[in-house]
Amino acid sequence: MDELETYFTYHPPTAAQLPRYVAIRSAGLAMARAIVANVPAGPDRSAAIRKIREAVMTANAGIACEPRPRAVGEHRTKPGLREDNLPGGERGPNQ
Asked: Assign residue 56 a region: left if phi > 0, alpha if psi is -120 to 50, beta otherwise?
């Protein structure tokens, strides 16, 4: 799977990843609550909350997209793709 495909593919969480997602979301929620409790309502507070949401989502994507070891017998390519004709690979039909 190439880098872009990795970013635009659903990655179901593993049991080992679930506590990491919870830790990130909990920290984001705590920070958001501190901002709501201490910053007057307005565009700056809204922007701060939005940036926390973005940070949590980006961190979660980092967890979801981390390299996973291949299972025994798992292939590097999708069915129907040849090693010599991979998208973005070193060799292709016109190279």
From this structure: alpha
